[in-house]
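Researcher: I'm preparing a figure for a lab meeting and need a structural model of a single chain. I don't have an experimental structure, so a prediction will have to do for now. The sequence is pasted below. Please return the structure as C-alpha cells so I can convert it later.
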Amino acid sequence: MKLLALAPLAALALLGGCEKTAPKQFSRQALDKALADPGRKDQQGADAVRKPGPLIALAGVKPGDKVLDLIPGSGYWTRIFSKIVGPDGKVYAVWPQAYARDAMGNVADLRKLSADKYYGNIVTEVQPTTKLSAPEKLDVVWTSQNFHDYPDEFMGKGDPTQLAKDAYSLLKPGGVFIVIDHRARDGRGFSDTDTLHRVDPAAVRKTAEAVGFKFAGESKVLENPADPLDIPVFAPSIRGHTNRFAYKFVKPS
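Model: Understood. Here is the structure written out cell by cell.
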C-alpha cells in the first residue's frame, strides 16, 4: 500500500523535473521589454528604420540564448539581445581585427558597455582573423549589413563561404544564422560589395545553403522599392533607407 501511495508522488516529481528542463521559447514580452530598455534610449529613434521587433521575432532570440553579434557597430542590436537573453544567456560582440582597425571607437564603447553590470552578459572581443570563433556553442549568429564586407580589400579579401562555414560550426543543431544586408541588383553576386557595399541576396542564400544551412524564411520589412540598387549605400539620396533583405538560415537538428 505504501508503495502504491508513493507512486503518484514519484510521477509528480518526474513531471516537475521535466518542467524545469523544458526549453525556453521566444517571448514577445521579453522582446518588448528589451525594446523599452532605458539603457538604449539614445538608440530608440532608429527603431522605425531598423525594425528590431519583426527581425528579432524572425530570429526567435529568447531568454537564455547564446548570441554572437558580428561586427556590432555601436551595439544597437547588442543591447537588445542582452536584455532578451537575460542573466542565463550571453551576447558575444565580435569584430575581426581587420574591421576593428577602422572601428576602434565602437570597440571601446562596447568594452565599456561590457564592464557595466547592467549589461553584464555582454562579452566584447576583437578576433585576430576573419575566422569566427566562440567559447561555446551558440543559438544565434547575427550579422547586420556586414556580410558584404568579407570579400573586400580592407578585410583581406576574406571568403564569405568561410564565414558561413564558421557560423554553421559554431551553432547548435537547430541554431539560427541571420543575414541582413544591402540588396544589389539580381545577378550581381558579390561584384558590388566593395564599390556599392551591396550584395545579391541570391548569392548569400547560395553560399549559406552550400555549407549545410536550410533557408528558413525572410522578412521584407526593410525593403524599399525606391532604391535603384546601383548606387553606393552611403549616397545621400538613399543612406539609411536602402533596400535591405533579411534572411534566416537554420542548422538542421
